[in-house]
Protein backbone atom coordinates (compact mmCIF):
# COMPACT_ATOMS: atom_id res chain seq x y z
CA UNK A 1 0.00 0.00 0.00
CA UNK A 2 1.11 3.53 -0.68
CA UNK A 3 0.18 6.85 0.88
CA UNK A 4 0.60 8.52 -2.52
CA UNK A 5 -2.79 8.90 -4.23
CA UNK A 6 -3.49 8.33 -7.90
CA UNK A 7 -6.00 10.33 -9.92
CA UNK A 8 -9.20 8.32 -10.32
CA UNK A 9 -11.62 10.66 -12.09
CA UNK A 10 -12.24 14.30 -12.84
CA UNK A 11 -15.79 15.02 -11.70
CA UNK A 12 -17.99 17.60 -13.41
CA UNK A 13 -21.16 19.01 -11.85
CA UNK A 14 -24.08 19.21 -14.26
CA UNK A 15 -27.88 19.11 -14.39
CA UNK A 16 -28.09 15.83 -16.36
CA UNK A 17 -25.18 13.42 -15.72
CA UNK A 18 -26.36 10.77 -18.15
CA UNK A 19 -26.66 13.23 -21.05
CA UNK A 20 -23.30 14.86 -20.37
CA UNK A 21 -21.61 11.46 -19.99
CA UNK A 22 -23.05 10.44 -23.37
CA UNK A 23 -21.65 13.64 -24.92
CA UNK A 24 -18.12 12.91 -23.67
CA UNK A 25 -18.47 9.19 -24.46
CA UNK A 26 -19.20 10.17 -28.06
CA UNK A 27 -16.42 12.79 -28.20
CA UNK A 28 -13.81 10.39 -26.81
CA UNK A 29 -15.24 7.20 -28.38
CA UNK A 30 -15.15 5.44 -25.00
CA UNK A 31 -17.38 2.62 -23.76
CA UNK A 32 -20.84 3.18 -22.29
CA UNK A 33 -20.86 4.94 -18.93
CA UNK A 34 -21.59 3.34 -15.58
CA UNK A 35 -24.72 4.95 -14.10
CA UNK A 36 -25.44 4.86 -10.36
CA UNK A 37 -28.82 3.43 -9.43
CA UNK A 38 -30.25 6.87 -8.60
CA UNK A 39 -28.76 8.45 -11.76
CA UNK A 40 -27.01 11.19 -9.77
CA UNK A 41 -23.48 9.93 -10.49
CA UNK A 42 -22.22 8.63 -13.84
CA UNK A 43 -18.68 7.46 -14.59
CA UNK A 44 -16.81 7.09 -17.86
CA UNK A 45 -13.86 4.73 -17.46
CA UNK A 46 -10.75 5.53 -19.45
CA UNK A 47 -10.11 2.49 -21.69
CA UNK A 48 -6.38 3.27 -21.64
CA UNK A 49 -6.39 2.83 -17.88
CA UNK A 50 -5.84 6.47 -16.92
CA UNK A 51 -8.17 8.77 -15.04
CA UNK A 52 -11.79 8.75 -16.12
CA UNK A 53 -14.48 11.41 -16.05
CA UNK A 54 -17.43 11.42 -13.66
CA UNK A 55 -20.59 13.49 -13.79
CA UNK A 56 -22.54 14.54 -10.71
CA UNK A 57 -26.11 15.86 -10.73
CA UNK A 58 -26.45 19.37 -9.33
CA UNK A 59 -30.01 20.65 -9.82
CA UNK A 60 -29.08 24.35 -9.59
CA UNK A 61 -25.93 23.98 -11.71
CA UNK A 62 -24.58 27.24 -13.10
CA UNK A 63 -22.08 26.79 -15.93
CA UNK A 64 -18.79 28.66 -15.74
CA UNK A 65 -18.54 31.91 -17.68
CA UNK A 66 -15.72 31.95 -20.20
CA UNK A 67 -13.81 34.19 -20.18
CA UNK A 68 -14.78 36.03 -17.02
CA UNK A 69 -12.69 37.40 -14.17
CA UNK A 70 -15.83 37.53 -12.00
CA UNK A 71 -16.80 33.87 -12.55
CA UNK A 72 -13.70 32.05 -13.84
CA UNK A 73 -13.81 28.68 -15.55
CA UNK A 74 -11.84 27.06 -12.66
CA UNK A 75 -11.26 23.83 -14.61
CA UNK A 76 -11.27 22.69 -18.21
CA UNK A 77 -10.36 19.55 -20.12
CA UNK A 78 -7.68 19.54 -22.82
CA UNK A 79 -8.39 16.88 -25.45
CA UNK A 80 -5.54 16.09 -27.85
CA UNK A 81 -6.39 15.57 -31.53
CA UNK A 82 -4.32 14.89 -34.63
CA UNK A 83 -6.80 16.55 -37.02
CA UNK A 84 -8.10 19.78 -35.49
CA UNK A 85 -10.50 20.56 -38.36
CA UNK A 86 -12.13 17.12 -38.35
CA UNK A 87 -12.38 17.09 -34.55
CA UNK A 88 -13.88 20.60 -34.64
CA UNK A 89 -16.67 19.50 -36.97
CA UNK A 90 -17.23 16.34 -34.92
CA UNK A 91 -17.67 18.06 -31.53
CA UNK A 92 -19.94 20.73 -33.02
CA UNK A 93 -22.09 17.94 -34.47
CA UNK A 94 -22.27 16.34 -31.02
CA UNK A 95 -23.53 19.54 -29.39
CA UNK A 96 -20.45 21.54 -28.39
CA UNK A 97 -20.44 25.32 -28.75
CA UNK A 98 -17.33 27.09 -30.11
CA UNK A 99 -16.09 29.74 -27.65
CA UNK A 100 -12.75 30.78 -29.18
CA UNK A 101 -11.05 29.82 -32.43
CA UNK A 102 -8.29 32.41 -32.51
CA UNK A 103 -5.38 30.22 -31.37
CA UNK A 104 -3.85 28.22 -34.22
CA UNK A 105 -2.98 25.16 -32.15
CA UNK A 106 -6.14 24.78 -30.06
CA UNK A 107 -9.81 25.79 -29.90
CA UNK A 108 -12.05 26.38 -26.90
CA UNK A 109 -15.58 24.96 -26.70
CA UNK A 110 -18.37 24.59 -24.18
CA UNK A 111 -19.95 21.19 -23.63
CA UNK A 112 -23.78 20.98 -23.50
CA UNK A 113 -23.72 21.85 -19.76
CA UNK A 114 -21.44 24.85 -20.37
CA UNK A 115 -18.08 23.47 -19.16
CA UNK A 116 -15.17 24.71 -21.26
CA UNK A 117 -12.89 22.22 -22.97
CA UNK A 118 -10.17 22.54 -25.58
CA UNK A 119 -9.27 20.56 -28.65
CA UNK A 120 -5.48 20.72 -28.85
CA UNK A 121 -3.59 19.88 -32.03
CA UNK A 122 -0.76 17.44 -31.36
From TrEMBL:
Domain Glyoxalase-like residues, every copy: 10-120
Domain of life: Bacteria
Protein name in the entry: Glyoxalase-like domain-containing protein
Pfam family, any one: Glyoxalase_6
Listed InterPro entries: Glyas_Bleomycin-R_OHBP_Dase, Glyoxalase_6
